[in-house]
Amino acid sequence: MKNYIELVNANVRLQEGPLVIEQLLVECFIQPGISTKELARKVLLPVPVATAVKKELIKAGALMQDRGVRCTYNGISYIENELGYGGLDKALYQRLMTNGTVWKIELEEILSLITKLFQLRPQVNVQIDQSKCTPETSLRRAILCLREHALIGKKILCVGDDDLVSVSLGLLLNRLFPNEGNKKTMITVIDNDDRFLKYIRDIKVREGLFINDLHMDLRQPLPEYFHGQYDCFFTDPPYTLQGMSLFLSRGISAIKKAKGLPIFLSFAHKSPDFMLAFQQELIHMSLSIKEIIVHFNEYEGAQMIGNKGQMIVLQTTESTKPNITDRFEDTIYTGEVRQTIRTYQCKLCNRSILVGIQGDFPTIEVLKNQGCPVCNQNKFCLIKKQIRRK
Length: 390
Known about the structure:
Layout: H1 4-12, H2 19-30, H3 36-43, H4 47-60, E1 63-65, E2 69-71, H5 73-82, H6 90-96, H7 102-106, H8 108-119, E3 132-133, H9 135-147, E4 155-159, H10 165-176, E5 186-191, H11 194-207, E6 211-215, E7 232-235, H12 241-254, E8 262-267, H13 272-284, E9 287-300, E10 308-316, H14 334-337, E11 338-346, E12 352-355, H15 364-370, E13 380-389
Parallel strand pairs: 4-5, 4-7, 5-6, 7-8
Antiparallel strand pairs: 1-2, 3-9, 8-10, 9-10, 11-12, 11-13
Helix pairs in contact: 1-4, 2-3, 3-4, 9-10, 10-11
């Protein structure tokens, strides 16, 4: 079967990249008879450019001009079989693609299921900057992936997944393809926490999801077979420059060498000086910022970041490259980079106890679980905090 996208891209060479051609073709599939003006608005192209792409797709045999623009038989076959849209619930797809919160009503059952699954997920390890995003946030990320045309028929990578985004993506796909699922989409999780990998694996089997999972230490380079395989990736890295750069670099190594591919980066709201350094890191990797959605992410009990975080949608360019390609030896976690030693006092015996990476206990949660080393009770008050920067 003809690859219509490659054929047209060879003739028009859009600055925006071949993904826009795919989006234009899919819009004609979803909404037969769409006007050229509306088509241009949907794919964010000037009308003359959209018209040129349309004409090339007509010449290739994928589209026809008939009371608006619509797909030919061959075009429909290509979209359904090669791009993975066969069996799609088009009406639901159109409703979910509409901006707003209509998805909360449409996906109420999925959100309810995700909420139950989240209640049973493993406890986070704060020493490696894990934090629990809310069930709604996880599903909202999956909706964003759909709206960015990065879900159906794509290879999606989750670089770390204590937020179970892979599960939300899989459940959303099952809802969009109610009869036979969607076997063209491939979701992969890489993480070094076997607890979460096992939990995702159990859900996959129980709910009939298509998710691959692999144990990987991101400090190590990704294996060669992983390079250049994926269409997008999600990551919610440690909220340090080193952690962000490492997680993004590993994802970039895995993503295809093409411009315009989306990267979904969740990150804390930070100071202007920090964000300047953050943006300089992005420039070094030749990534462009498409959109910053403030307060997109919500977390349970993450008071240090105000329970809120931003979603930064990045895009690859022709020169995108990872900052880090070798083994990474530097510190990446907040508690390592920003060395904080807290002194807690036992409320019963007044014993002073140091908590932190270099303290008697790594976290207050560990101290409370184990109890005071003198009297064994678990109520403490913070009396001193000292920060040692590396």
